[in-house]
TrEMBL record:
Entry superkingdom: Bacteria
Protein species of origin: Pseudokineococcus marinus
Modified positions (4-aspartylphosphate) in chain numbering: D57
Keyword tags: DNA-binding, Phosphoprotein, Transcription, Transcription regulation
Protein name: Response regulator transcription factor
Domain Response regulatory stretches: 6-121
GO biological process per UniProt: phosphorelay signal transduction system; regulation of DNA-templated transcription
Lineage: Bacteria, Bacillati, Actinomycetota, Actinomycetes, Kineosporiales
Domain HTH luxR-type: 148-213
Length: 221
């Protein structure tokens, strides 16, 4: 049996931390290993505890969640899911630029919170298709910019096809249906794409797909 996913809670509201702890610790495969009430304490706790996933509030006194995320990611002491009460682009893009692997609203259902922690622990990025499109619009090379095809030059034709579908925001199951492949096969292709591109999650792969010119804003779905 695999060891449980180790989770660190970083939020300045004790009631929020308590609620998240109650939701997560019901699950046998999840374990809350620590809590912190501000960004600086969260960075220190991540360094000491080495959690698999850090649930990080975006608005905290002192060092905010975005700056704390950047430090945790740079130190390699946990994958970060940023939490906020507002689905705003400023928070979203700042968090992703800082290296967050996911973005979740605090009013998400308990099942969504649990699924988010598991997904990020597996190495997946936590972005819905609509959010992926917003990421692309903000991060990708603007119209008329110089694209860099060498970024995806090492991919096979099949891997390029998988990357194009990733850039459209499709899940592994949806890619499998589109390409008439098994989901396990698609997962293997996605893993190889990430490895060859030298990125740690789907979000960065999508950005590279656009920066390379493999896909462009408005392509596909």
């Amino acid at each position: 049996m695999s060891p449980p996913v180790r989770v660190l809670l970083v939020d300045d509201q004790a009631l929020v931390r308590s609620g998240f702890r109650m939701i997560l610790e019901v699950e046998p495969d999840l374990e809350v290993v620590g809590e912190a009430a501000d960004g600086a304490a969260g960075v220190a706790a991540a360094a000491a505890l080495r959690p698999d996933v850090v649930l990080m509030d975006v608005r905290m006194p002192g060092l905010d969640g975005v700056a704390a995320t950047e430090r945790v990611v740079a130190a390699g002491t946990g994958r970060v899911v940023v939490l906020t009460t507002f689905d705003t682009d400023d928070h979203l893009f700042a968090a992703l630029r800082a290296g967050a692997s996911g973005f979740l609203l605090k009013n998400a259902d308990p099942d969504e919170l649990v699924a988010a922690v598991r997904a990020v622990a597996r190495g997946d990025a936590l972005l819905a298709p609509a959010v992926t499109r917003r990421v692309v619009e903000r991060f990708a090379a603007p119209s008329g910019a110089s694209f860099r095809p060498e970024l995806v030059a090492g991919l096979t034709e099949r891997e390029r096809g998988v990357l194009v579908l990733l850039a459209r925001g499709l899940s592994n199951g949806e890619i499998a249906a589109e390409l008439v492949l098994g989901e396990a096969t698609v997962k293997t292709h996605v893993s190889r794409v990430l490895l060859k591109l030298g990125v740690r999650d789907r979000v960065r792969a999508v950005v590279l797909a656009y920066e390379s010119g493999l896909v462009r804003p408005g392509d596909g779905g």
